[in-house]
Amino acid sequence: MAARNRLPPWHEQIRLSNGREVLIRPIRPADADPLRQGFALLEPDEIRQRFLHAVRELTPEMADKLARPDAKREFALVAAEPLPPGEALVGAVARASITESGREAEFAILVSHYIAGLGLGRHLMRRLVRWAKGRRLERLCGDVLEHNQPMLALAQSLGFRREQTDEPGLVRVVLDLQPGRGTHVHDHDEPQAA
């Protein structure tokens, strides 16, 4: 039997439906500069959908903070070229942060328009759900602009429910993670990546 090329935990090489290969892996401090470079390529609407307001630039300090999540409370994955961190262009970022209550995490996902619509957002969201379940959290939630229909449709298809927010134009999507609360996102549901 041939030896399989084993990847470290939370690393996965997948082929997108357009044939491009990306490596999904935990974010690294060396990703700060590629994050800044990739940010400059984003369209204003992509930035608003992720940050929920206009952000002109990703400063070195902001990029460094994003690339160094607090391992006790945060989890962040990138979808990048299969090159070493720091050299690889980052096309998507997914992160979850445990809230002050310690019972839920808030998520955020940004997939660049260059690779949007290829199933990567769904793949990343399932990874965030798996992490949150492993932390035995009760809920995974996120705020989504009401006109971000692709993200709202993705959340609904994965079993998230909608909650009203006090902020006009925002929808909170929530997935209950505890058994018996209706969650149906399972790793074995996923199509196998090529």
Automatic annotation (TrEMBL):
Residues 22-178 form the N-acetyltransferase domain. Signal peptide: none annotated. InterPro entries: Acyl_CoA_acyltransferase, GNAT_dom. It comes from the Bacteria. This is GNAT family N-acetyltransferase. It comes from Noviluteimonas lactosilytica.
